[in-house]
Amino acid sequence: MSLQPETFKSLVKVAAEQVIASAPELTSLDQAIGDGDHGINMKRGFEAVLGKLDAISTQPLDEALKMIGKTLVMTVGGASGPLYGSFFLAAGEALSHDRHLPDDLADVFGSGVNAVSARGRSQAGEKTMLDVLVPVLETLRASAGQPDLIGRVRATAAEAVERTAPMQATKGRASFLGPRSVGHIDPGARSSCVLVHAVCASLEGQQ
Amino acid sequence: MTDTVGIVIVSHSKDIAKGTADMVRQMVGSEVKVAFCGGNPDGGLGTSVPLIIDAINDAWSAKGVAILVDLGGAETNSEMAVEMLEPARRDRVVVCNAPIVEGAVMAATEAAGGSSLAQVKAVAEELSAD
């Protein structure tokens, strides 16, 4: 898996377009257990990323990830802005400090996951985006270098989203519902899965 | 204006932020700098990091700035905004764990007496104690 500038540009484009296309689904999931703005917020953020795609894709990869992060922070308008923003800012920062793709993919992704956890003061198991990001990180670590890594990551993310349904939320707006949050997929977990799947699809298309 | 801690009010709703600021000004007049923001970058309910950064700079005082927030996203976005400030200002801004209206009025009243940032934060947070 190599990451040439054109590959990266199309990867970001596909990921942003997938998030934008999933906005109605994210909205409907968030209306069930939150304030219903996750879809529109993510759409606003990733439209801003698309608007800066040319500038982003001419940067070195570390700076490009930081630019994506800052764009999300400044435009999303909900807690998901700083959460996803911190993921990309920290992943970019890891690449600025002697980490390289593809060898250090799990480490770089892990830096992003740690940043989300710190920003949200949250752990896996609380019905949040971490319930997708943490299992994906575990798969990246366990299956590093395997030929079917992308397929395993895709399956992990898909299964992880479903596992948020029986969880009771203890973080974020959904926690106000207490036991009534059970039975619904977490919108943040779903948007994380959309992003992970978009990256998988884009990388598979490049192979 | 003597130098007092500035107050920033961050709500998901601009109306709540403005109303809270009005209540603060009723207590402290112009003795304390008060800035507020509410709404996402499109003007709907939510919060916006650039607007929070502007509000912090508007309320800036050498003694620092105390931020009062309503729900989760306002807190997360405020913490992010603080981290994006220039380094010299970053350490002199705190997000208070307090109810937004009562916290803002209590914090501003304390600030008006010339208290430090830590004292202002402590007074606001007494409301969340126990």
From TrEMBL, chain A:
One of its GO terms (molecular function) is glycerone kinase activity. One of its GO terms (biological process) is glycerol catabolic process. Transmembrane segments: none annotated. One of its GO terms (cellular component) is cytosol. PROSITE patterns: DHAL. Keywords: Kinase, Transferase. Residues 6-201 form the DhaL domain. NCBIfam families: dha_L_ycgS. PANTHER family: TRIOKINASE/FMN CYCLASE (PTHR28629), TRIOKINASE_FMN CYCLASE (PTHR28629:SF4). This is Dihydroxyacetone kinase. It comes from Bradyrhizobium lablabi.
TrEMBL record, chain B:
Pfam families: EIIA-man. Residues 4-130 form the PTS EIIA type-4 domain. InterPro entries: DhaM, DhaM_N, PTS_EIIA_man-typ, PTS_EIIA_man-typ_sf. Gene3D superfamilies: Phosphotransferase system, mannose-type IIA component. GO terms for cellular component: membrane. Its EC number is 2.7.1.121. The keyword Transferase applies. It comes from the Bacteria. The keyword Transmembrane helix does not apply. Keywords: Transferase. One of its GO terms (biological process) is glycerol catabolic process. It catalyses: dihydroxyacetone + phosphoenolpyruvate = dihydroxyacetone phosphate + pyruvate. One of its GO terms (molecular function) is phosphoenolpyruvate-glycerone phosphotransferase activity. Homodimer. The dihydroxyacetone kinase complex is composed of a homodimer of DhaM, a homodimer of DhaK and the subunit DhaL. Component of the dihydroxyacetone kinase complex, which is responsible for the phosphoenolpyruvate (PEP)-dependent phosphorylation of dihydroxyacetone. DhaM serves as the phosphoryl donor. Is phosphorylated by phosphoenolpyruvate in an EI- and HPr-dependent reaction, and a phosphorelay system on histidine residues finally leads to phosphoryl transfer to DhaL and dihydroxyacetone. NCBIfam families: dha_pts. This is phosphoenolpyruvate--glycerone phosphotransferase.
